[in-house]
């Protein structure tokens, strides 16, 4: 493509192309044309030796050094990450253990407090029941005492009322039976 | 018509360089440019290797970029065995690249536009890679010209074709570089000479009209920069390919 363009341009200006006659590149009569290759060989050999013995190995050392430093840093970072992971795992384990222990302790304390409270409540209820029973017993005793006290009074009162009405003193046995019956009826009523 | 003519080829003519001493040993302006290229390559290595920093500066980054580019080209194309040829490929690549780039500057000589230079480089690559082939495989390297999996009756036809294509390698390798560089420089010279002709023929109008070839030359400069890098790369990668063929025979 480019060669075609060159040929087209050169053919457009044939005077220019013919001004020199031939291309200097093809002028092998000129000793410089072939001698430039000899000098190029000398320059290239020198350049090759400098690059192969000094430049490229030195550059390679710099690059290898960088690669090893990067590898070392990566290894260190990896090791640090493993340590950190282990530390996190240990921390998590300790945390969950402590949490479990704390939970158990709390549950134990709650159960203990509950048991104590229940025991207290039971004791209180027992003492209350006891007091109630005592009180009831006392009331019943008082009542029976009162009832027992009522009977002679009632029999005396009935005897004196009967004496005043009839003039005769009633028989104590019969009076006693009647008073009992009346009291029982009153109690039933 | 008297006036400026376009001398498109004068820029390629060889003249003695380095004063009377150079004249005595036939050291030409082309060799001056080669010397400049070699000195610049060694110079950027010296600059780039001064710090040897873990984090490269600009100069070091240039050398590292070049080093790794050619290094990867060798390893990717030839394989791990290619590292033996890395200094050689690097020398050829950097020499041609600097030659192409230096040739783009005004008053510099583009030595890669000389067929004698490119042909001797290509012949060296050809002879060297063939030598590597025989050194590696001995006489079995001749099997390289016998394609695999081809019916026997086709071989009398295919083997000569393979041999011709192998022998034409230095020609295509050298003419590609020479023609690209020559064509670019000739076009530059033609458009620049056209500007002078326009001014000489049309006076003040010619000055305005010459903006067109000037713009073309500016665009050509960008193209030539691309070609300079690309042709150096092509030469180096083909060198690697030929070495790959010599080492692996397929």
Q: What does this protein look like?
A:
The complex is a heterodimer of chains A (189) and B (250). Chain A is mainly α. Chain A has one domain. Chain A is 90% helix and 0% strand. Chain A contains four helices and no strands. In chain A, helix 3 (31-166) runs antiparallel to helix 4. Residues 6-20 of chain A have low confidence and may be disordered. Chain B has 250 residues and is an all-alpha fold. Chain B has one domain. Helix content of chain B is 73%, strand content 0%. Chain B contains eight helices and no strands. In chain B, helix 2 crosses helix 3 (58-78), helix 4 (86-103) packs antiparallel against helix 8 (211-248) and helix 5 runs parallel beside helix 8. Chain B starts with 18 loop residues before the first helix and ends with a helix.
Describe the secondary structure blueprint for this structure:
The complex is a heterodimer of chains A (189) and B (250).
Chain A: H1 2-12, H2 14-19, H3 31-166, H4 172-188
Chain B: H1 19-24, H2 29-51, H3 58-78, H4 86-103, H5 115-137, H6 155-167, H7 169-209, H8 211-248
Helix pairs in contact in B: 2-3, 2-4, 3-4, 3-8, 4-8, 5-7, 5-8, 7-8
Radius of gyration of chain B using CA atoms only: 22 Å
Number of strands of chain B: 0
Q: What order do the helices and strands of chain B follow?
A: HHHHHHHH
- Find the structural class of chain A using helix and strand composition: mainly alpha
Largest sheet descriptor of chain A: none
The percentage of residues in β strands of chain A lies in under 5%
Overall radius of gyration of chain A? 67 Å
DSSP summary: helix tally of chain A:
4
Overall body shape of chain A = rod-shaped
Give a short account of the largest sheet of chain B: none
Q: What is the global morphology of chain B?
A: globular
Distance N to C terminus of chain A:
142 Å
Low-confidence stretches of chain B: none
> Please, what is the average pLDDT of chain A?
86
């Amino acid at each position: 493509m480019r060669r075609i363009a060159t040929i087209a341009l050169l053919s457009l200006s044939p005077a220019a192309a013919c001004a020199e006659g031939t291309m200097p590149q093809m002028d092998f009569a000129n000793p410089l044309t072939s001698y430039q290759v000899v000098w190029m060989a000398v320059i290239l050999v020198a350049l090759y030796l400098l690059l192969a013995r000094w430049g490229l190995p030195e550059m390679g050392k710099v690059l290898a050094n960088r690669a090893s430093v990067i590898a070392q840093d990566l290894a260190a970072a990896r090791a640090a990450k493993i340590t950190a992971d282990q530390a996190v795992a240990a921390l998590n384990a300790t945390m969950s253990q402590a949490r479990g222990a704390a939970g158990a302790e709390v549950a134990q304390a709650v159960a203990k407090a509950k048991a104590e409270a229940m025991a207290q409540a039971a004791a209180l209820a027992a003492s209350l029941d006891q007091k109630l029973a005592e009180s009831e017993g006392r009331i019943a005793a008082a009542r029976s005492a009162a009832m027992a006290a009522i009977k002679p009074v009632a029999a005396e009162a009935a005897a004196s009322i009967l004496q005043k009405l009839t003039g005769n003193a009633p028989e104590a046995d019969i009076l006693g039976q009647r008073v009992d019956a009346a009291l029982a009826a009153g109690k039933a009523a | 018509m008297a006036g400026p003519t376009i001398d498109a080829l004068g820029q390629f003519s060889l003249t003695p360089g380095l004063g009377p001493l150079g004249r005595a040993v036939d050291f030409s302006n082309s060799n001056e440019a080669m010397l400049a290229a070699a000195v610049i390559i060694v110079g950027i290595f010296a600059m780039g290797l001064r710090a040897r920093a873990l984090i490269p500066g600009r100069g070091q980054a240039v050398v590292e970029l070049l080093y790794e580019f050619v290094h990867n080209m060798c390893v990717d194309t030839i394989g791990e065995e290619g590292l033996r040829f890395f200094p050689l490929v690097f020398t050829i690549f950097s020499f041609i690249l600097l030659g192409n780039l230096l040739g783009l500057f005004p008053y510099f000589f583009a030595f890669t536009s000389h067929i004698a230079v490119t042909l001797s480089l290509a012949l060296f690559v050809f002879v060297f890679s063939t030598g590597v082939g025989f050194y590696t495989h001995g006489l079995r390297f001749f099997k390289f010209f016998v394609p695999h999996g081809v019916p026997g009756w086709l071989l009398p036809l295919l083997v000569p074709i393979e041999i011709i294509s192998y022998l034409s390698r230095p020609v295509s390798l050298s003419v590609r570089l020479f023609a690209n560089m020559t064509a670019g420089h000739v076009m530059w010279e033609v458009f620049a000479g056209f500007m002078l002709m326009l001014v000489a023929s049309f006076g003040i109008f010619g000055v305005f009209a010459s903006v067109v070839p000037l713009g073309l030359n500016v665009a050509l400069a960008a193209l030539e920069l691309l070609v300079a890098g690309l042709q150096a790369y092509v030469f180096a990668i083909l060198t690697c390919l030929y070495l790959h063929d010599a080492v692996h025979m397929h």
